[in-house]
Amino acid sequence: MSSAINCGKVAIVTGGGNGIGREISIALAASGAKVVINDIGVSLTGEGGSATPAEETKRIIEQAGGEAHINTDSVADWESAKKIVKSAIDKYGRLDIVVNNAGILRDTIFHKMSVDDWRTVIDVHLNGTFYVSRAAAEIFRKQESGSFVHMTSTSGLIGNFGQSNYSAAKLGIVALSKSIALDMNRFGVRSNCIAPFAWSRMTDSLPTDTPEQVKRVDAMKAMTPDKNAHMAVYLGSDLAAEVNGQIFAVRNNEIFLMGQSRPLRSVHRSDGWTPDEIHEHAMPALKSSFYSLERSGDVFSWDPM
């Protein structure tokens, strides 16, 4: 980072041992923050557990002159999430930034998805984001400052195949972030989302069965995880004091402000509507504004710049 914009601040990064989380942890430390690296070291599907990834991230931070602390509690349980926040207070005496990055994948086509695959992904992504944010909320309220940075995904904002659990969780995080921003703005607390594009464990499982898929994966490999770290560092800093309730996407060297749901078109009938009249009049008037069944790769169809 070019300046110590978070000097003296304390940050928690969940899932901070690998991929995007590692790069955000390193960048926050480089910006002057003391970082709690929360990572239980599980596989992409949430199995196993080891502190090794977090230890490697901590070593990188300390070799560069930064300061970091490891926490291995799970975000997917309320009592455990409270321990994550407590570890920051116990170690550093304060908390200023929470980056909700922890995540797993259990990709399955919808009609074959198990209840366990649904619940596990929702627990880590959506419930985990709520638990850690809620645990930090009282601290932020009392000190009248704080920044939440949540990782969403274009799989939720736009759509994708075989990811109904992940997509639902990631879109839920957007609504949660906006609610936090509305509820806590009066306390000087901010909440924003990043939809990252990056080659990481989360994308390493993408299929490469066709030439088109190979081309897409090759393009994604150029989008290294560190590209997203700068946005997270900025949103956590006082430079972003006027940025609240927003959704950003970072795609290599591009930054997008993503839309939020608003009315597109309307039709009115003074006597109300019957099903037949909806079919004959309302739908033809509205149809030109329908969204097509696109996935993220269809919308972001150009090569990353």
Automatic annotation (TrEMBL):
<dbReference type="InterPro" id="IPR002347">
    <property type="entry name" value="SDR_fam"/>
</dbReference>
<dbReference type="InterPro" id="IPR020904">
    <property type="entry name" value="Sc_DH/Rdtase_CS"/>
</dbReference>
<comment type="similarity">
    <text>Belongs to the short-chain dehydrogenases/reductases (SDR) family.</text>
</comment>
<dbReference type="InterPro" id="IPR057326">
    <property type="entry name" value="KR_dom"/>
</dbReference>
<protein>
    <submittedName>
        <fullName>NAD(P)-dependent dehydrogenase (Short-subunit alcohol dehydrogenase family)</fullName>
    </submittedName>
</protein>
<dbReference type="InterPro" id="IPR036291">
    <property type="entry name" value="NAD(P)-bd_dom_sf"/>
</dbReference>
<dbReference type="InterPro" id="IPR051687">
    <property type="entry name" value="Peroxisomal_Beta-Oxidation"/>
</dbReference>
<dbReference type="Pfam" id="PF00106">
    <property type="entry name" value="adh_short"/>
</dbReference>
<feature type="domain" description="Ketoreductase">
    <location>
        <begin position="9"/>
        <end position="205"/>
    </location>
</feature>
